[in-house]
Amino acid sequence: MKTVMILGGTTGVGNEILKSCLEKGYNVAFCGRKSSVGNQIIQSLQSEDKLYFHELDLNSIEEIENFHLQTIKRFGKIDALILYAGITPVASLLDTEEDIYNSVFNINLKAPFFLLKHVLKSMINNNSGSIVFFGSAHMDYGEIDRAPYALTKNALYTLSNHIAHHYAKYGIRSNYLVMGWTNTEGEIELRTKEGMSEEELKSKASKILPMGRMLNRFDPIPAVMHFISDDSAMTTGSIMRVTGGEYI
User: Fold this and answer.
1) DSSP notation for 181-238
2) What is the 8-class DSSP label of residue 243?
3) Proportion of the chain above pLDDT 90, given as a percent
4) Which of 46, 100, 173, 231 is the most buried (most CB within 10 A)?
5) What torsion do the CA atoms of 95, 104, 208, 8 make, to the nearest 10 degrees?
6) In terms of DSSP H, where are the helices of 82-175?
7) Measured between alpha carbons, how far is 112 from 19 in angstroms, rounded to an integer?
8) What is the dihedral of CA 41, 36, 133, 79, to 10 degrees?
């Protein structure tokens, strides 16, 4: 029985990963800012025995450690860690203020780094583990209005390769999944603030992306489930692009 830990899991692709893991019979630990949302998900899926929700502010390093401790207490081990949560503020190099810079780096890079600090120790003890980083096509150099975000996604790629190189001897593998332009709740909320409807967003994306449409929340799931499974037992240090052909 595998135990999967998700940094995130209450919305979008993260929530679909959670559901797919349940279908496989896996235990899942997930997190979010509101316990009411987590509890509602557990109740709606009728999976109290297989799900653990941890209320978590990703700016709290102490609570990140507690998320790990409570997951181990509940399920005894962590077989896979999915690093999904992140923020994507509109911010160019020229107009990024310090508070925006700090928030992006705290949530996108610092939180996964310190969660990994604890999870890797558990995986070393078990002599196995799979880590999946959620990346972005912005990792290469990024759109002009996504400067801090691009830096964090590039740093996560380096971190994934660092783990793959140095921890393979413990049976731990790490892979980087590039998720393309997706109609997540966050993306729709951002575009709504800009005065763009979801249909207008999809129409715009269809004219830009080579494969003719933006991703939906289901498109990255098969790749994630492959990385979790034993079918990818010898796959580490890889980068997989699920982008509809988008290369910034």
Assistant:
1) SB--HHHHHHHHHTT--HHHHHHHHHHHSTTSS-B-TTTTHHHHHHHHSGGGTT--S-
2) S
3) 85
4) 173
5) -160
6) 98-105, 111-126, 147-167
7) 22
8) -60
Which residues lie below 8 Å from residue 239, measured CB to CB, with a gap of 6+? 135, 157, 175, 176, 177, 178
Which residues make Cβ contacts (< 8 Å) with residue 162, sequence separation at least 6?
none
- Please name which of 188, 183, 241, 178 lies closest in space to residue 214, comparing C-alpha atoms: 183
How does pLDDT run across 13-25, given as a tens digit for each residue? 999 999 999 999 9
What are the C-alpha distances in Å from 191 to residues 132, 149, 185?
Answer: 28, 17, 10
- All domains of the chain in start order, with CATH: 3-180+217-242 (3.40.50.720), 183-214 (no CATH)
Among 140, 138, 134, which residue's Cα sits nearest to residue 149?
A: 138
pTM: predicted TM-score of the whole model, two decimal places: 0.94
Confidence of residue 248 (pLDDT cuts 50, 70, 90): low
| Residue 190 in tokens | 């951002």
User: Are residues 81 and 114 in contact, defined by beta-carbon separation less than 8 angstroms?
Assistant: no
| Number of helical (H) and strand (E) elements in the chain, helices listed first | 9, 7
Cβ–Cβ contacts within 10 Å for residue 234, how many?
8
